[in-house]
Amino acid sequence: MWLLFASLNPVSEGFRSVVVKKTSAKTEPIIISWGNYFLPVLLFTPGLFFIELDLNPTALIASFISSSINTLAAVWYIKAISEGDISEVLPMMSFTPLVLLITSPIIVGEFPPFLGFVGVLLIVVGSYLININFKKRDFLGPFKALIRNRGTRHMLFVAAIWGISANFDKIAITESSIPQHVIFMNIFIFTSLTIYLLLIRKLKWQKIKPVKSNLLAISAFTCCAFIFHMTALSMTYVAYVVALKRMSGPIAVVLGHFFLKEPNIKARLIGSLVMVAGVALIVLA
Fold it and tell me: What is the number of other CB atoms lying within 10 angstroms of the CB of residue 114?
């Protein structure tokens, strides 16, 4: 069952990235980041009256750390998508499982079996292949992209800090519950972004009105992604769930080509196939 939830997450993220990319041409990334959490807060917060709250210190501290990291990631994630092709930028998130191979054993004491380890590495390799230009035989292309492309650099930063926050997500939901952690985190991020926008005087209706429909669509996809991701995290290893979450990269390659007319679909799909092989190994493990 965890495989189903973990697989639906990148589908939601893939479609969200398309809408984010289109919306970024009409408004600032910080406004999109704020709108991203509007529906999750609106729909999830009333759940506090229907769940059993567990306010033990471990759960609260883990939620606070994860929420703080994810507030930063929320802004840089949207900023990265606005600065480059989603079929180049989103695959950078595949480096999160590599970070988790280091952070998970230290923070939550989890380390996957050998096949799972190889599967995670294949997903990272697939991400590298997606960015290679085979026609030019530019095998250093992915590394050059990190230097010349602000979008890929920023998404690599997001991938790295998500490799830390995912462990605290695991602790928070283990010590409390999935609904509690999701609600607390969304309230924290939305409130933090609201305060920041008010302080810099950018939370204005004239900035929101032209893209209100897009912001609602982005929020809806985010709601689905949260539910799928947190449910899967409660069922299996952190590294496995986040590895499958990175399948949003191959999905973004396809969606970016058909909806945004982004180039190099064939070359980038080669990397996608390698990532699928990594997923297969994770399932076998």
Answer: 9
